[in-house]
Amino acid sequence: MGCVGSDAYAKNLEDCASKDGVLVNYMKDEATPTGTCAVLVKDGERSLIANLAAANNFKKSHLETPESVAIYTAAKFYYIAGFFLTVSVESLVTVAEHALANDKTFCLNLSAPFIIDFFGDAVATALPYADYLFCNESEAAAYAKKHDLGEDLKQVALKIAASEKKNDKPRTVIFTQGDKSTIVAKEGVVTEYAVDPLAKELLVDTNGAGDAFVGGFLSELVQGKDMETAVKAGHWAAKYIIQQPGTTIDKPCEYKN
After folding, report:
1. CA dist 37 to 112, 178, 211, 218, Å?
2. Which of 29, 131, 205, 211 is catalytic?
3. What pLDDT, in 10s, does the model give residues 151-178?
4. What stretch of H or E contains 229?
5. 35 and which of 40, 53, 74, 151 could share a cystine (Cβ 3.0–4.6 Å)?
6. Terminal-to-terminal C-alpha distance of the chain
7. pLDDT digits (tens, 9 = 90+) for 57-91
8. Cβ distance 233 to 216 under 8 Å?
9. Would you tell me how many other CB atoms lie within 10 Å of the CB of residue 189?
């Protein structure tokens, strides 16, 4: 779900997602264009300039439509990126409260350091619902600095895992670190999962690496697989996407766990 305009970009988004088997239910803002993003890639690394436009206009009322209610009440797992915290916290809380009341799994990504620095109250509202929290090393460091949690990211992960939660399910915290080991903290234990190295000449574009990791991870989590299997799938997906221009997938998934 999200908010788009009524234009060619919106149609393209919907067509591409639908073609890949994704059920989309966008809120349409007739007065605002679909959001766009300019991307600069240099030596495989990327910088983004976003024009949020309609993406900034999602309203809780969209979740109250019969179509939306049917979709989110049927789901068993929920994933919301931190960027949404700048748009409609009340919408996030609606979905998170449903997950909480029905013992479903709620996942959150911190998404960017500026979310932590400038939308701290929204993060504080969302985090207690999170059964799984994802972020990269920069976001983890920003959160640790803001909350005086120290500089050791393993200890930071443990402290976030043990922080306030709406239910009794233990929280799992996952920090990705690019080509360095992924940190996973849960119930007082930290585990590190090594990342298979990629030759520098094979790196094309880091766009979507974190999102691909989460996608791979969740693809195994929803099947009830263990943590090592989920992280392995996340690493595979991230490694694949950084060898592609943009977030393109040029063939059917060949992953086998």
Report:
1. 16, 23, 16, 26
2. 211
3. 999 999 999 999 999 999 999 999 999 9
4. helix 227-241
5. 53
6. 29
7. 999 999 999 999 999 999 999 999 999 999 999 99
8. yes
9. 9
**41 beta partners:** 46
| Signed CA dihedral, 59, 65, 71, 73: sign only | positive
The verdict on pTM exceeding 0.85 is: yes
For residue 50, the one-letter residue type is: A
pLDDT band at 148 (very low <50, low <70, confident <90, very high): very high
CA distances from residue 22 to 19, 34, 40, 59 in whole angstroms, order as listed: 7, 19, 28, 21
Residues 77, 251, 240, 256, Cα dihedral to 10°: 70
Residue 191 and residue 188: Cα distance in Å, rounded? 10
Give residue 4's region: left, alpha or beta (phi > 0; psi -120 to 50). beta
* pLDDT tens figures, 196-244: 999 999 999 998 999 999 999 999 999 999 999 999 999 999 999 999 9
Phi-psi region of 109 (alpha: psi -120 to 50; beta: other; left: phi over 0): beta
Which string of b and e fits 195-221 if b means at least 16 CB within 10 Å? beeeeeeebebebbbbbbbbbbbbbbb
Q: How confident is the model at residue 249 (pLDDT cuts 50, 70, 90)?
A: confident
